């Protein structure tokens, strides 16, 4: 079978809800609606690392954007994103399309429009000359139902600069 040569970037927890802050999980394992939609498009998934999990572990307290907006956390985000950005460069050098990204609405780190981690990713992508657009976001609802046709699911936040 022929590969699509198209890849979407996803927040870590789209594929692994076990890294989510306790009590905020939107599913028991994966975000099935989002993954099925990506699969239907024929795209590969490039999973971002989870910055909160790697910074504070699985039993971390709930924190806000302001609490994560520190030089130490931003350095951590950049450090764990370095190999990821290098991987994107390789994809681009070999003719792959980065078709967009997927984040988590209301996450202090992974909201595409206002998350600390996503801000650092946007800066690093800009520095590398890599444009990623559009961005979708998993809604901040208990069900976590993803509908790519819903205008609220589409984000043109910090990533679209």
Automatic annotation (TrEMBL):
Lineage top rank: taxon: Bacteria
Location of the region described as Disordered in the Swiss-Prot/TrEMBL record: 141-161
Matching InterPro entries: TudS-rel
Protein name per Swiss-Prot or TrEMBL: Secreted protein
Gene source species: Symbiobacterium terraclitae
Organism phylogeny: Bacteria, Bacillati, Bacillota, Clostridia, Eubacteriales
């Amino acid at each position: 079978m022929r590969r699509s040569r198209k890849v979407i970037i996803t927040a870590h927890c789209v594929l692994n809800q076990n890294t989510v802050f306790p009590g905020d999980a939107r599913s028991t394992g994966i975000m099935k609606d989002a993954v099925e939609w990506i699969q239907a498009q024929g795209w590969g998934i490039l999973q971002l690392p989870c910055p909160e999990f790697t910074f504070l572990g699985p039993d971390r307290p709930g924190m806000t954007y302001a609490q994560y907006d520190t030089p130490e956390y931003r350095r951590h985000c950049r450090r764990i994103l370095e190999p990821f950005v290098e991987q994107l460069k390789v994809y681009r050098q070999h003719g792959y399309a980065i078709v967009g990204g997927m984040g988590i609405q209301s996450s202090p780190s992974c909201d595409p429009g206002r998350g600390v981690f996503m801000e650092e990713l946007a800066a690093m992508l800009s520095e590398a000359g890599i444009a990623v657009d559009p961005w979708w976001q998993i809604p901040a609802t208990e069900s976590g139902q993803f509908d790519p046709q819903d205008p609220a699911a589409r984000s043109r936040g910090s990533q679209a600069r």
